[in-house]
Design goal:
Blueprint (H helix, E strand, L loop, with lengths): L6 H7 L4 E6 L3 H8 L5 E5 L7 H11 L2 H7 L7 E5 L9 H10 L3 E4 L5 H9 L23 H7 L3 H7 L12 E6 L2 H13 L5 E4 L1 H8 L8 H16 L3 E7 L4 H7 L3 E4 L6 H10 L3
Parallel strand pairs: 1-2, 1-8, 2-3, 3-4, 4-5, 5-6, 6-7, 7-8
Helix pairs in contact: 2-3, 6-9, 7-8, 9-11, 10-11
Length: 285
């Protein structure tokens, strides 16, 4: 029980960046990612269909009995998170509850722009506790139904309750709450959010929506977009909160690391090198 279960948190605690990617909800992708070099993956259910049954299947296909036996630990090699469809303004706790109850180790909330929305995001990932208890705030509102999650984590319910809290608010917590900062309002309010809402594990910049709102769709190098991103990074560093970028490439990864991003999302690519070589060779016949 002393070993860290969440590989993303493990990287953060070691002062290292965590490398992640978005994934579709299908069994083949789950099995492939389970043996990948990523620290974690994010099942994408904001722009893709929200399907908790498919999520449950994908999580099962991430289990690798040989990896568990070889490591001597129930900690997954690659930690699964989920991005849910509920925007911050919708204040909908049920989406977080359902993905956590399936066994995810964290939730990414899109379009969080205010202190109230951020508070709800963290509270939705926490169980209730008596008023006046340590770490009472943000007041937990997650409904109690841990059977599937504790079984998936390989823990007793009692041990799951001990671990199923948000990091870094709860030092032993294994759950991550990620807030997406993707509007001018969110940028303006980020300092207040991080001042007043404990339990935020990381802030993920939503460059696409942010650039849209600024009037420069997907022009990520535009000075106004770059300035907004710089402000997000500086605010996160001020509060010692991890900041993430969803568009890490072979061209910008060094720059992002230098700028202090530590939750790095890179799109997985498949190589067709042998096919390309064979096609070139075939042209001579």
């Amino acid at each position: 029980m002393t070993q860290r279960l969440n590989s993303i948190i493990k990287a953060f605690e070691a002062g290292k960046p965590a490398f992640t990617a978005f994934s579709k909800l299908d069994k083949l992708s789950a099995a492939e990612f389970a043996d990948s070099p990523y620290d974690g993956i994010v099942y994408e259910m904001e722009h893709n269909p929200y399907d908790v049954s498919a999520l449950g299947d994908a999580l099962q296909y991430m289990l690798n009995r040989k990896q568990i036996a070889d490591s001597g630990s129930v900690a997954p090699r690659v930690t699964p998170l989920a991005r849910i469809p509920a925007n911050g303004v919708e204040m909908n706790q049920s989406f977080a509850k359902q993905v956590l109850d399936r066994g995810c180790y964290g939730v990414i909330w899109p379009h969080v722009s205010t202190v109230e929305q951020a508070y709800n995001a963290v509270a939705s990932c926490r169980y209730a506790r008596p008023k006046g208890a340590p770490l009472y705030e943000p007041k937990g509102v997650r409904g109690d139904g841990p059977a599937n999650a504790s079984r998936y984590w390989g823990l007793s319910m009692a041990d799951y309750y001990q671990k199923a809290d948000v990091w870094p608010l709860a030092p032993e917590g294994e759950l991550l709450v990620g807030l997406m900062c993707e509007s001018p309002e969110a940028v303006e309010n980020l300092d207040d959010i991080l001042c007043n809402v404990p339990g935020v594990g990381f802030v993920l910049i939503g460059e696409g929506d942010l650039s849209q709102a600024l009037g420069y769709p997907r022009q990520y190098e535009h000075p106004e977009v770059q300035d907004a991103m710089r402000r997000i990074v500086e605010t996160c560093h001020k509060h010692k909160v991890v900041v993430g970028n969803p568009h890490v490439t072979a061209k910008n990864h060094k720059k992002l690391l230098d700028e202090g991003y530590r939750f790095l999302m890179a799109a997985p690519t498949k190589s067709y090198g042998v096919v390309g070589l064979a096609q070139q060779a075939a042209t001579s016949y």
